[in-house]
Specification:
Family: Belongs to the sigma-70 factor family. ECF subfamily.
Protein name: RNA polymerase sigma factor
Distance between the termini: 54 Å
Number of helices: 8
Keywords: Sigma factor, Transcription, Transcription regulation
Mean pLDDT: 81
Shape: globular
Pfam families: Sigma70_r2, Sigma70_r4_2
Length: about 160
C-alpha cells in the first residue's frame, strides 16, 4: 500500500460517516447519498496531492461534498424529475423502535428545509465546531449562530406538524 493509499484510507475512515450524513441530509435517499459519498471521496482521492493544509482536511472534504451535492441537486432539477427523496422510513423494514422513528422523522423534516439550511443543520448534528461550520458555509460565526437558531425553530415547527398527524 502506498503512502497516498494509507493516508486516503485513514481520511475515509475518519470522515465517511459524517459525509454520508451530509449527503443524506441533502437527498433524503440512501442510494443517492451513497453515490454522492463515493463521488465525493473519488474527488478527494483525485485531488489529495493538491490539498495544502490551509484548512482542516475535514473542512476541505465537507466543501467537496457540499459542491458535489449541490451539483447533483441542480442537475436533478434541470432534468425536471420528481424529487429523489422517497421516504426511507416508509420503505425499509427495519426494527421500529421509537428512537428510529424519531430519527427518520427528523431527517424527513430536514429534507423540507432549504439547501443551505440542510447543510448547516447536518453539520450541527455531526457536532462540527461552529468555527468550522462558519468556514465551510462561508458566513461569520455570529451570523451562523442566528441561522442555527432559526433552523432549529423551523425544524421544531415541522416536527410538531408531523407529530400532530
Amino acid at each position: 500500500m502506498s503512502d497516498k493509499e494509507a493516508v486516503f484510507k485513514q481520511i475515509f475512515q475518519t470522515n465517511s460517516k459524517k459525509i454520508y450524513h451530509l449527503c443524506y441530509g441533502y437527498t433524503g435517499d440512501d442510494d443517492a447519498a451513497n453515490d454522492l459519498l463515493q463521488e465525493t471521496f473519488l474527488k478527494v482521492w483525485q485531488n489529495l496531492d493538491k490539498f495544502r493544509n490551509q484548512a482542516m482536511i475535514s473542512t476541505w472534504i465537507y466543501r467537496i461534498a457540499v459542491n458535489t451535492c449541490l451539483t447533483y441537486l441542480r442537475s436533478e432539477k434541470r432534468q425536471a424529475k420528481d424529487e429523489l427523496t422517497p421516504e426511507i422510513a416508509d420503505s425499509k423494514p427495519e426494527d421500529y423502535s421509537p428512537k428510529n422513528e424519531q430519527v427518520a422523522l427528523l431527517y424527513k423534516c430536514i429534507s423540507k428545509l432549504e439547501e443551505s439550511e440542510r447543510i448547516i443543520i447536518t453539520m450541527v448534528l455531526d457536532e462540527l465546531p461552529y468555527p468550522e461550520i462558519a468556514d465551510i458555509s462561508g458566513i461569520s460565526e455570529g451570523n451562523l449562530r442566528v441561522k442555527i437558531f432559526r433552523i432549529k425553530q423551523k425544524l421544531t415547527e415541522l416536527y410538531n406538524q408531523y407529530e400532530r398527524l
